Design the sequence.
């Protein structure tokens, strides 16, 4: 399910999610290759820590990183989790987005 970015004209990508109970990631794959990812680790049962975000050169500037943060926020709300964004990019998105404060740890 695609998540809308902040700018309507930016392309929405199909964001996928993997989680093994200890760590997980939201990512965009193009032709079977991961082109953007945001990884997290579980810290207890009610908190995840975003530790890394990367977007390939081919997808940079399209708002994909923000869409990955948004996907993580939606996941946290659905599961009633809190997020600790240690990744500098994710932290900056949280700092600029007041709507995400409800899931911030």
Sequence:
């Amino acid at each position: 399910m695609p998540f809308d970015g902040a700018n309507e004209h930016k392309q929405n990508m199909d964001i996928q999610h993997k989680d093994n109970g200890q760590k997980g990631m939201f990512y965009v794959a193009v032709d079977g290759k991961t082109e953007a990812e945001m990884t997290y680790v579980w810290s207890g049962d009610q908190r995840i820590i975003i530790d890394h975000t990367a977007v390939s050169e081919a997808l940079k500037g399209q708002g994909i990183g923000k869409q990955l943060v948004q996907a993580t926020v939606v996941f946290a709300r659905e599961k009633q989790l809190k997020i600790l964004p240690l990744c500098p990019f994710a932290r900056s998105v949280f700092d600029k987005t007041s709507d995400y404060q409800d899931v911030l740890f």
